[in-house]
Amino acid sequence: MCDDLTETDAARFLARAGTLDRRRFAALGAGAMTLASMPGCRAQGEPPALPVKGRDVAITTPDGITDAWFVAPTSGRHPAVLLWPDIAGLRPAYRTMAAHLAASGYAVLAVNQYYRGAKAPVLDSLVAWRTPEGQAKLKPLITQITPAGIMRDAAAYVGWLDRQGEVDTMHRIGTCGFCMGGPYTVRTAAAEPDRIGAAASFHGAGLVDTGPDSPHLLLPRTKASFLFAIAQNDDARSPDDKTTLKTAAAQAHRPAEIEVYPAQHGWCTIDAPVYDREQAEKAWSRMLVLFKANL
C-alpha cells in the first residue's frame, strides 16, 4: 500500500528524475486528465476504441450500499470487469481508466471501496493522499475494510454485474486492482471462483503476508489466471514476494505472469506523480492479453 516508505521512495525518485513540474502537479491535484488527453491513451497494439457510456450506480452489499461507476460500450453485450482503485479511492482518474478499459470492449464496474464510511470521491487525486489532510480522511476509512468484507463485497458486485444488460454472462468476469486494490483481485477470484476468469494486480500491496488469509494462500481456491505486475521499489523492499507468488501459483496450478517492472509503486495510475507512460502501457497491454485469453 502507499505507506510512508512508499511515499519517501516516490519523493526521492521524483527529485532524481525531475519529472514533476508545477503545471503537471496542479493538473494531477485537480484530477484533470480525461480519456482524450490521457498520456498513452491507447497502448500499442490495441484495437480502435469503442464509444462508451457510463453511469453512477448504487449496489447493495451485506454491509451497506456501494456507490460505483459503471461504463460499457454503447451497444452490444460484453465481458465484465470489476476494477478496484488504489488507496486514494474512486475518483476522476479511475473513472477515466475504467472508460479506457471499456473502450476495449468490456463492461467495467469501478467501485468505492470506502463506502462503509464515505461516498466517493473521498479525495480528488492520489496527490491528495500525500497531504496530512488526505491521510486524516482516509486512515479511519481504511480500518473499516477487512479481508472478509472485501470478499462479501466482491460477491455482491459479481452478482450485480451479471444482472446488467450490457454484460455477456456467457463470458467469465475479469478483475483488476491497483495498490491496495491489487490483493482485492485475488480475494475476488477466491470469493467467486466459477465467475472470475482472470485477475490483474498492478503494484499490489500485501499480496504476501504472514496471516492465514494472505492473498497468496487463496490461490488454490480460485479458477482464474493471474497477472502480477510488481513495482521495482516494492520488489527491492520484499524481494522474496515474487518467488512466493510464483511458488503458490504453481502449487495451485494457476497460470500466473509475474514481472517486476522498472517503475515506481503507483506507476500505472494516471494521476500518480510517478505515472510512467511506457511501463503503464506495457502493463495495460498484458492485462488485455490476459482478459482476451481467459474471459
From TrEMBL:
Family annotation (InterPro entries): AB_hydrolase_fold (IPR029058), Dienelactn_hydro (IPR002925), Dienelactone_hydrolase-like (IPR051049)
Keyword Chaperone among record annotations: no
GO MF entries: hydrolase activity
Signal peptide: none
Claim: Hydrolase is one of the keywords in the record: yes
Gene3D superfamilies per record: alpha/beta hydrolase
Keywords: Hydrolase
SUPFAM superfamilies named among the record's database cross-references: alpha/beta-Hydrolases (SSF53474)
Start and end residues of each Dienelactone hydrolase domain: 67-293
A Pfam entry, by short name: DLH
PANTHER family noted in UniProt: CARBOXYMETHYLENEBUTENOLIDASE HOMOLOG, CARBOXYMETHYLENEBUTENOLIDASE-RELATED
Name the UniProt record assigns to this protein: Dienelactone hydrolase
Organism whose genome encodes this protein: Novosphingobium nitrogenifigens DSM 19370
Lineage: Bacteria, Pseudomonadati, Pseudomonadota, Alphaproteobacteria, Sphingomonadales
